[in-house]
Amino acid sequence: MKTNIIPAIRLTLFCAVFFCGFYTLSVLGIAQLASNSGKGEIITENRKTYHVNVAQAFTEDKYFWPRPSAVDYNGAGSGGSNKGTSNPDYLAEVEARIDTFLLRNPGVSRKDVPAELVTASGSGLDPHISVASALVQVKRVAQARNLPENKVSAVIAANTEKPFLGLLGTEKVNVLKLNLALNKL
Amino acid sequence: MNSEILGIIVTYGLVLLLAIPLGRYIGKVFNYENTWLDKVFNPIDRLFFTIGGINPNKEMTWKQHLGSLLTINLVWFILSMLVLTNMAWLPLNPDLNPSMSLDLAFNTSVSFVTNTNLQHYSGETALSYLGQLTLMLWQFISASTGIAICAVVYKAMKEKTADTLGNFYSYFVRSATRILLPLAFVVALILAFNGTPMTFEGKDTVTTIEGKEQIISRGPVAAFVAIKQLGTNGGGFYGPNSSNPMENPNYLTNIVETASIFLIPIALVFALGYVLKRRKMAWTIYGVMTLGFLLLLTPSVISEMNGNPAIDNMGIAQQMGSMEGKEVRFGAAASANWATYTTCTSNGSVNAMHDSMTPVTGATTLLGMMVNCFYGGVGVGFLNFYIFIILAVFISGLMVGRTPEFLGKKIEAREMKIAMMVALLHPLLILAGTAIASYLYANNPEEYAAWLANPGYHGFSEMLYEFTSSSANNGSGFEGLGDNTPFWNYACGIVMLLARYLPIIGPVAIAGILAAKKYVPESSGTLKTDNATFGFMVFTIIFIVAALSFFPALTLGPVAEYFSMSN
Q: Inter-chain contact A52–B195, Cβ cutoff 8 Å?
């Protein structure tokens, strides 16, 4: 112990300098070349900036809605609901979300409501919805904007992100990009 | 083929392709052979030794190795306590986050120094950037500790008869600089160029399209996430870990982060083959680990993709599978995939909330941590597997009526006692811990009401999971558990300490004792330890130990929940 303690302290302090300092600053330095200098991916529209990777709350009829958030889309306190699949309170909450959705989306039948649109994401900041979750909202959005439905569907098609390399993973739509594209119509 | 399934197959293939050459490279690092990175790392390592006042050529016995390891880990713990309880007034705190309470700092310090990374706090609000960087330091060097001590055991297995097994500090520094650093650097840059923040600026404030204010946490995330994945650490920068879209922005980063979980654990198995010049044995071990892993992965993926039966009963469309607590950009398959890796390897990072997964995944993730050696944590995963090898050799020896021998060394009563104690420690910590917590809760459900976010069987699973995760040095959680209380902070802290150091001390002692014994050359009567028969034997031992110890507890949690849901 005694013979070990001094080298242990000295080695630890140098490790701190090396890994917290050298490693972190090297990554930081090179990250300056990344988009937005490593401050998170943003998109600028009408001189306003938005974080592409972070879901915003959308509640108005004329916008596509993101998935529910257990933390009310708090970008500084992300989190999931952590509700178990069999929890009766949780299931009642999902049931209520379905009812609300059907109420605000007249003409949509229950069997067409995608589960991911009424279940909360892991981070509470999921920026994406599935294509089905977008299509099920077309009627409402088109009505609220006085647009033909096929025009709104076309915006979805144009903003659909294919699986990675066209092969791997899920197909999805970024809600923020979709709504920005709609606003430009 | 379904693109979600293809995604997880490609991820695995990619890792296997990388792990084989990486294993050879790690073997060379352990053997002090020349590699093409020597030009860069020889001077860097010399700097570490000069400043540390260390003679890297001083040979150590197994006891001296353990002495050095425990001392330096103690230094880290004390330093960590000092930083975490004083963050508020220390520098690098642009968001003015507070210092930690004593019990939370104890839990967090133990958690990161033991390579567990259980988090009873949320990074965005509970840590300054100095706190995050300090924890990142432990992520590097606690992982190096595991790899270094694994190198010592490899060395002991290799030697014919030896009392000394190299120098601990030397293995430690080489593991940190030559293995973890270059990989972390590459992964961090891939993340940074895919939208993961890497900045020391504080929170960003934006106005949403609908005109509300939204505050967004940033920080040196990319550098932190890279090592948390590679070192089987798992502690995230953000509260919900890699499900957060800043920490894990797209499917590519998800592949890279998933691959980083199990790249080094698999490579270390191949490194064993290289060091011992027994490639067949390495492939046998790899085969057993992979079989166990696949047996856990498959039901989990199927169950998550099939979705939650209770949601099906509501009559809505569940095409994507069970999506509560999951992210659309990953989908159900990649989430189940990550959940299985992270629990099999003692990583503990998550890209979806385990608490909200189906009961089948609840059971498989728990089992992964209970076995804790299907690939396992960096370095220590093999140490756990080594215990099962010793048990299998001994039992096989008894079955065929021979003196049990492993790699030319007789296994005798003393080694067996140590192996049994280590094998039984894990169930003892998990089951005793869960029993105490259940007792407290059952006797006073009102006082402890805030503990459980879910009622019934699932509530029990939350407590079982927390102790399993602590004892496996995993760090993931059923996060519905209200775990930032003195009881959970201290109880889990103590479990993490015992479960980290005793399973290191045991295998090192066995390997050290065996290394000092007389070498008995292999003969036709020697039990072969590198063929499928022996592999099957090891698998059976693992299954029996896990089944006998844990199935009763699993039955009360996820198994009961499963049957209660399937009408």
A: yes
Shared-domain flag, residues A107 and A175? yes
| Host domain of residue B409 | 6-565
B81 phi, psi to nearest 5 deg: -60, -45
Instruction: Give dist(CA B91, CA B133) in Å, integer.
Output: 12
**CB of A144 within 8 Å of any CB in chain B?**
no
Domain limits at A175?
A: 40-183
Same domain, A10 and A59: no
Confidence of residue B292 (pLDDT cuts 50, 70, 90): very high
The count of domains in chain A is 2
- Whether residues A61 and A101 share a domain: the answer is yes
What single-letter DSSP state applies at residue A112?
G
Distances (CA, A) of A37 to A64, B96, B196, B210, B236: 30, 23, 11, 27, 22
**pLDDT tens per residue, range A25-77:** 999 999 999 888 888 889 998 888 999 999 999 999 999 999 999 999 999 99
Q: Residue A129 — left, alpha, or beta (φ > 0 → left; ψ -120 to 50 → alpha)?
A: beta
Residues of A in contact with B478 (CB under 8 A): 82
Most B CBs within 10 A among A10, A19, A25, A118, hence the mutation to make, goes to A19
Whether B1 is covered by a domain: the verdict is no
DSSP for B164-195 reads B---HHHHHHHIIIIIIHHHHHHHHHHHHTTT
Interface ipTM above 0.90: yes
Tell me how many domains chain B contains. Answer: 1
Residue B567 confidence (pLDDT) above 60: no
Residue B45: per-residue pLDDT: 95
* B501 touches A at CB < 8 Å: no
B564 and A CB contact within 8 Å: yes
Report d(CA B139, CA A82) in Å as an integer: 26
- For an interface test with A, the pick among B168, B328, B559 (most A C-beta atoms closer than 10 Å) comes out as B328
For residue range A152-166, what is the model confidence (pLDDT) as tens digits? 999 999 999 999 998
How confident is the model over B458-498, as pLDDT tens digits?
999 999 999 999 999 999 999 889 889 999 999 999 999 99
* Closest by Cβ to B244, choosing from A10, A78, A170: A78
Q: Would you call A99 an interface residue with chain B, using a CB distance cutoff of 8 Å?
A: no
Residues in A touching B463 (Cβ below 8 Å): none
Q: Which of A25, A56, A123 to mutate to test the interface with B (most CBs of B within 10 A)?
A: A123
